[in-house]
Amino acid sequence: MNTNLHHLQLFYYVAKAGGISHAVKIIPYGIQQPAISQQMQQLETELGVKLFERRPFSLTPSGEKLFKFLAGFFTNLETELEIVKNSAGFRLRFACPSVVSSKYLPILMKRCIEVFPDFRPHISELDGFQSLKALLGHEADIGIFFAPDNFKSKLVTIKKLRSMPYCLIVPNDHRFIKEGFWPKSDFAKEKWIAVQEQSGGSQDLMEVLSGMGITPQFSASASSIEAVLSYVEMHIGIALMAMPPPDLVKPYKVKVLPQPEIFGNLDLVIGWLNDLEVEKKFLNFLVSEAKNLALKV
């Protein structure tokens, strides 16, 4: 006999609730009353016995015997699954840009695991706005990403870690360094490196230059900070990005020029969906440690 396990589970809920209409209210997933009735009829046909009287509801002797067995099975199953879940620890999916993943997240994850040994992180490197997109699409539980000033979302809890100015990255001998001040019209003479073009990283640059009546000319496109710094050093173009980590910039013959008055700031934030099921104690620790580390980068 190849009895459908789902039918047995539905019968368990029907017997437990005392009827099909009552079972609809306690079954932990969406199913309508007619579907339950149909599947109960199929189960009785498969078994060749009547399991319960419909009106008024009462279990037959065969139904009583089956319910007694199923009650022990499903009750123990829930307990065993909870034990397995707890032994595996609590898993959280993180999404963040590569620069955060390589320079920042390993330390943060290590500290979290030291305090919460059951914590099991899964990390995905997603540049630009892809980390936020993954979060909103329930493909990640927690995101650490760069967002515009005062970014807000009704779906996500956002905690600001650090405000960082947009910076121009130019070669060491660039005229912007020598002149110290330049008219905005000078931007029209420059060629640019498109930073993370595929994931929206150059959007703010294009919006600001468009407001000046300038259409930027891009001479290269790069996703990694190291590639951007190399292209700038080679005089292929200049770039705009959030202030990069000093240790990344040091090997290159480039200059970082903060320009918040022209291009504004970006906030490094940590965010999670409002319905995320995780202990508040863990989130408070995560945010506190993330903020302390962000201020040191």
Protein model, in words:
The chain is an alpha/beta fold. The chain folds into 3 domains: 83 residues, Arc Repressor Mutant, subunit A (Orthogonal Bundle); 103 residues, Periplasmic binding protein-like II (D-Maltodextrin-Binding Protein, domain 2), CATH 3.40.190.10; 101 residues, Periplasmic binding protein-like II (D-Maltodextrin-Binding Protein, domain 2, 3-Layer(aba) Sandwich), CATH 3.40.190. 45% of the residues lie in helices and 24% in strands. The protein contains 13 helices and 11 strands. The radius of gyration is 29 Å and the shape is elongated.
Question: Quick summary of this structure?
Answer:
The protein is an alpha/beta fold.
